[in-house]
Write a structure and sequence with these properties.
The chain folds into two domains: 133 residues, 2-Layer Sandwich (Nucleotidyltransferase, domain 5); 169 residues, ATPase, nucleotide binding domain (Nucleotidyltransferase, domain 5), CATH 3.30.420. It is 42% helix and 18% strand. The radius of gyration is 20 Å and the shape is globular. 48% of the residues are buried. It binds 5'-O-[(R)-(carboxyoxy)(hydroxy)phosphoryl]adenosine and zinc ion. The site of 5'-O-[(R)-(carboxyoxy)(hydroxy)phosphoryl]adenosine has 19 residues, from helix 5 and helix 6. 5'-O-[(R)-(carboxyoxy)(hydroxy)phosphoryl]adenosine binds next to helix 5 and helix 6.
Length: 337
């Protein structure tokens, strides 16, 4: 029997300071997420300078709490996994420095993890992954179709050419005067509305790439025009129309990519994977169009940023011998490989 691998994982790429202890990539011993949302809400979005300061204040407390909950000390873990990138440079630095400090003080190997690999491997907490696999990664910073021929080999086959889907949700919500983060608010509001507004569809070409800035601008211009003309907008209908238009192309391209790459499994990943309409649409559409492809949707708690997912991906990086060094620097626009 293979020896257990226990990782202490740190995630600090955006506005969550998170630490988890994860065994063998799929068993959470403890997971603590300290979110800064209530503070960023006041500004209507994440202020990078404020985010990094809060990470500095929180990181040691969150590390202590995760260890205490697991009833462990750093000596008990096999390695320190951490998000090396991509993300906000100042935020990333804090997690990277914390990881390097622990690795140095306790003489533990370092395992750098790509944030998106973390989101994809969050699915390990609910399912075995079957390869070849396609992942639809949808978050505040990313919209990508990532193909995994084998575990821990990543090929980005499509990506957004401009705004990420979560960014479009958040910007549309902001103009509709909804609180930050806007994604969950639009999700809730859309349930009460109908697809009443015919918005210009994002370009749906033969590539697997996405573009959401046109749709975002259409919505912003529509709101502006209606307000100027003193016409009332039905916010629920607008939320529903925006969401249906955006998700249609997202799910359509995912089905096409899964078919063309002949995958056995499709997994959803990232903060927008928490969206209730996307969750049902992906399940229904695959059932209808590609019933032999297994579909996995991460549970809500691990769609948005957390460190357990970094521990899950870190396990494969550890097994593959992908170790870091004390010289590693946070990599805000790191490639997935
Ligand atoms: O993965 P995540 O926590 O952070 C990044 O890596 O970006 O994703 C955050 C994004 C935000 O844009 C947020 O509005 C969006 O995920 N989001 C949602 C929902 N929950 C979070 N978007 C649509 N519907 C939701 N239910
Ligand atoms: Zn994320």
């Amino acid at each position: 029997m293979e020896k257990d691998v226990v990782l202490l994982a740190i995630e600090s790429s955006c506005d969550e300071t998170a630490v988890a202890i994860v065994k063998n990539g799929n068993e959470i011993i403890s997971s603590v997420v300290s979110t800064q949302i209530s503070i960023h809400k006041k500004f209507g979005g994440v202020i990078p300078e404020v985010a990094s300061r809060l990470h500095v204040e929180n990181v040691s407390v969150v590390i202590e709490e995760a260890l205490a909950k697991a009833n462990m000390s750093v000596e008990d873990v096999d390695a320190i996994a951490y998000t090396l990138g991509p993300g906000l440079i100042g935020s990333l630095h804090v997690g990277v420095m914390a990881a390097k400090t622990l690795a140095f003080a306790y003489n533990k190997p370092l395992v750098p993890v790509h944030h998106i690999a973390g989101h994809i491997f969050a699915n390990r907490f609910v399912d075995e992954l079957e390869y070849p696999l396609m992942s639809l990664v949808v978050s505040g910073g990313h919209t990508e179709l990532v193909y995994l021929k084998d575990p821990y080999s990543f090929e980005v086959v499509g990506e957004t050419l401009d705004d990420a889907i979560g960014e479009a949700y958040d910007k549309v919500a902001r103009v509709m005067s909804l609180p930050y983060p806007g994604g969950p608010e639009i999700d809730k509001l859309a349930k009460q509305g109908t697809f009443a507004y015919n918005l210009t569809k994002p370009k749906n070409d033969d590539s697997y790439d996405f573009s959401f800035s046109g749709l975002k601008s259409t919505v912003l211009q529509f709101i502006d025009r209606e307000r100027r003309n003193g016409r009332e907008i039905n916010n629920a209908d607008l939320a529903c129309s925006f969401q249906e238009t955006a998700l249609d192309v997202l799910v359509g391209k995912s089905v096409r990519a899964a078919r063309d790459y002949d995958v056995k499994h499709i997994v959803l990943a990232g903060g927008v994977a928490a969206n209730s309409r996307l969750r049902s649409l992906i399940t229904e559409t695959f059932e209808k169009e590609l019933p032999n492809v297994k579909v996995t949707i991460p549970p809500l708690w691990c769609c948005t940023d957390n460190a357990a997912m970094i521990g899950a991906a870190g396990y494969y990086a550890y097994q593959a011998g992908r170790f870091g060094t004390l010289k590693d620097k946070a990599s805000p626009s790191m490639d997935l490989f």
